[in-house]
Amino acid sequence: MINIVIGVVSLSGTIGLFFCAKLLYKKYRSPFTLPILTTTIIIVSVLLIASVPYSVYMIGGKWLDHLLGPVVVALGYPLYKQWTILKKYIGPLLIGVSGGAIFGVASGVLLAKVFQFDELIYYSIASKSVTTPVSMDIAKTMGGAPSLAAAFVMMAGIGGAVLGPTFLKLAKVKHPVARGIGMGTASHAIGTSRAMENSELEGAVSTVAMTVSAIIVAVITPLMIRLLL
Amino acid sequence: MNIFKISLHITLLYCFYLIGVWIQTTFNLFIPGSIIGMLLFFLLLATNVLKDSWIETGTKTLLNHMPLLFVPVTVGIINYLGFFSGKGLLLVFIVILSTAIVMISAGWLALLLLKGKVDTHD
Fold first, then answer.
1. Which residue from A22, A47, A156, A205 lies 20 to 30 Å from A213 (Cα-Cα)?
2. Which residues numbered 20-79 in B keep a CB inside 8 Å of some CB on A?
3. Which residues on chain A are in Cβ contact (under 8 Å) with B67?
4. What is the topology of this protein in the membrane according to its UniProt annotation (chain B) (predicted)?
């Protein structure tokens, strides 16, 4: 009984806070006011101050976990909706995304290895370029920590949304299709919403790239980790 | 009516997820079951076996609120805060550097293949 009460409080608190965070984001739009970031920071602070263990918060939180599988399935829908883009740019998409995915997994894992981080970090950082639910699933399959994976995904997303346009400018990537492929492959949904601000084409290509990247990274990560470690 | 429709659509998505997980465990694959479910879902939509209207409302609702679903997991970072103190700050640098590598390599490879192709820009 007490568990149900705790669950309802933590879950309704989470949902309520998230919708307030959404309102804030609407007013002050920036990668640093993303609802997922502000909500997480507030909840973590509250739990730390009130010294509530994570396991207690998760009594309610884990109810939302059941939707993580279906939401990955749902990602097939925008891919299907952008069928014309997918068909038209299939070559650049497949080659660009595959190359980016390979360099991404390799550079993340190898840099963590060079700086002698914990093994748990390798398995959690490998899939940082892809959308959170997929990245968490990959980390879980590999023996990494889904929470760490989610944190790395957020850094890659925010970092890419803020610095991505500068990276692309320095690298002289001006073509909207190539830019969309870069943003979507490196910074998933957060990068995609930044790409949408530039042009509709860039945003649409980025949407396709992030989904294709999720599939490719899910397939290559276990193989590459075996190769690299 | 709408709530009913949304629940029905999400239940359908859940079935795809379960089928994906079943395929993964049965054939002992290393690809997450959710991804297998997504590919199946995409294939059935692309081949018109599954109609837009059967899944659209629920799928859109779920995708619109997607980040909310991660909050409990991201809050889990509370158990790993130690990883980000001291030397751990290097991890932020590693992720940003690796993100730049991904973005530029993907962009350049795409440019290579886009060259020669006339940009119709539609």
1. A22
2. 20-21, 30-35, 37-39, 41-42, 45-46, 55-56, 59-60, 62-63, 66-79
3. 18, 34-36, 132
4. Multi-pass membrane protein
